[in-house]
Amino acid sequence: MDVKDFSYELPKELIAQDPLEDRSSSRLMLLDKVTGETGEAQFKDIVSYLSEGDCLVLNNTKVIPARLFGVRKETGGHVEILLLKREADDVWETLARPGKKVRPGTRLVFGDGLLEAEVLEVVEDGNRRIRFYYDGIFEEVLDQLGEMPLPPYITHKLKEKNRYQTVYAKYDGSAAAPTAGLHFTPELLEEIREKGIRIAEVTLHVGLGTFRPVKVENVTDHHMHSEYYEITKEAADTINEVKENGGRIICVGTTSCRTLESAADDDGHLAPCSGWTDIFIYPGYRFKIMDALITNFHLPESTLLMLVSAFAGREHVLAAYEKAVEEKFRFFSFGDAMFIR
After folding, report:
1. Which of 28, 38, 192, 255 is most buried, taking the most CB atoms under 10 A from its CB?
2. Residue 217 lies in a domain
């Protein structure tokens, strides 16, 4: 399976640079995974396509302001640090730029000394393991100094931090937002509940590896990064009950999908659990638990596009993407959505 099988042409002007003022006013493409038939609605109409007894699965991770700008203490040269994974209380795996200047032993200063750091070592993929030094509470210092880690295809500065955050975000830990969830408002979620649709929350802390391009020609040679996930007893019980009663399990975003598919047994049953997953879903995968998917439009040749293609068929997905380009849908993180059923 060649990575180029998941390519498509996208004009740059269709890459959404800013979130819409009203989260739920995005366009929604409807895709029948069996026939490939498409339709269109507004995202706020999603409730019309959900049925009483269904279960919507949300990823309640919270994006941290993980991008830090500082200087090298010895030379004053500028550095940019992106927090990827917390390994201990004050030790993080990070992405550092310029990498050649951020060698082990380098001391870094952020915010006029409010936060300092030492580079401990170079790890896999050229990332840096860094120890931070500060007074007080790290999260408060980070909130004061850090910026939201927007993907590189977004060049506009974000006016409000919370617009790269779902309205149901709870647990700090992500370097990127589970963007399918950005379309929901508290009012829309309440409308969904009132219709008798169950909501289950799981947690998967999204890493930047989600957006990294596949650099091998053969898809099966690609190695996925690992991400931490957690499923509570309440969430597992809700999902199992809905499944047993014939309701649909509808994942909001590929991260919710990867969480459930990592944790479910072969019969599609869930138990409370937590751990790390590096599940890679591409065409040929047999889904154990997900029945429908709400997702955004994904980058060409990305693992996310491969996951969606595994669920709805590569030909159907690429045809839908071609139509979305023709009809000028907005793409990627701040773009429009797709409901695959």
Report:
1. 255
2. yes
Residue 333's domain spans which residues?
Answer: 3-63+160-340
pTM: 0.91
Distances (CA, A) of 218 to 4, 120, 221, 224: 9, 35, 6, 14
As for how many domains the chain has, the answer is: 2
Per-residue pLDDT of the chain (341 residues; tens, 9 = 90+): 899 999 999 999 999 999 999 999 999 999 999 999 999 999 999 999 999 999 999 999 999 999 999 999 889 999 999 998 888 889 999 999 998 889 999 999 999 899 999 999 999 778 999 999 999 999 999 999 999 988 889 999 888 889 999 999 999 999 899 999 999 999 999 999 999 999 999 999 998 776 666 888 888 888 788 899 999 999 999 999 999 999 999 999 999 999 999 999 999 999 999 999 999 999 999 999 999 999 999 999 999 999 999 999 999 999 999 999 999 999 999 999 999 99
Query: What three-state secondary structure class fits 121?
Result: strand
Structure tokens at 77: 């040269």
C-alpha separations of 43 from 153, 158, 257 in Å? 23, 22, 20
Looking at the fold, whether 125 and 167 belong to one and the same domain comes out as: no
Q: Is 164 in the same domain as 126? A: no
Q: Is residue 152 part of a domain?
A: no
**Helix residue spans in the chain (DSSP H):** 138-145, 186-194, 233-244, 254-263, 303-312, 314-326
The reply to whether 18 and 95 lie within a common domain is no
Domain CATH number, residue 36: 3.40.1780.10
Instruction: Tell me, yes or no, whether 102 and 218 share the same domain.
Output: no
120 with 189, same domain? no
Co-location of 114 and 188 in the same domain:
no
Are 121 and 193 found together in one domain? no
